[in-house]
Design brief:
Layout lengths: L2 E4 L2 E4 L14 H10 L7 H17 L5 H7 L4 H7 L4 H9 L9
Antiparallel strand pairs: 1-2
Helix pairs in contact: 1-5, 2-5
């Protein structure tokens, strides 16, 4: 299985770089992943989405789709695309350290 190194530690990831063991994730790693994905400083709105993604994963075993994210996270879809331009659900999930949500390409 592939690995990625963040903050001097190796983590198992899938072929696309998503964590395979979400419990190994931490907030300081999120900032590093965000930079890799072309997102600068994580704002409070980014964190709102990231924490929502982790909560949904913990509750349901999967991250939400973009549609669900826009309806239930408190962040409208238009803003989600401003925060995570290359695909809100996919990129937010990667930064949140959870597997890629179903339906993401």
């Amino acid at each position: 299985m592939p690995t990625k190194t963040y903050r001097g530690r190796e983590f198992e990831v899938d072929a696309e770089g998503f964590f395979t063991v979400p419990s190994q994730w931490s907030e300081d790693i999120a900032a590093e992943i965000a930079r890799e994905e072309g997102i600068g400083e994580l704002t409070d709105r980014h964190w709102q989405v990231i924490k929502f993604m982790r909560h949904e994963y913990d509750e349901k075993g999967a991250g939400p789709t973009v549609r669900v994210l826009g309806k239930t996270s408190g962040v409208p879809i238009k803003e989600l695309y401003q925060l995570f331009p290359r695909g809100p659900a996919k990129i937010a999930a990667k930064i949140a350290g959870i597997p890629k949500p179903r339906g993401c390409i």
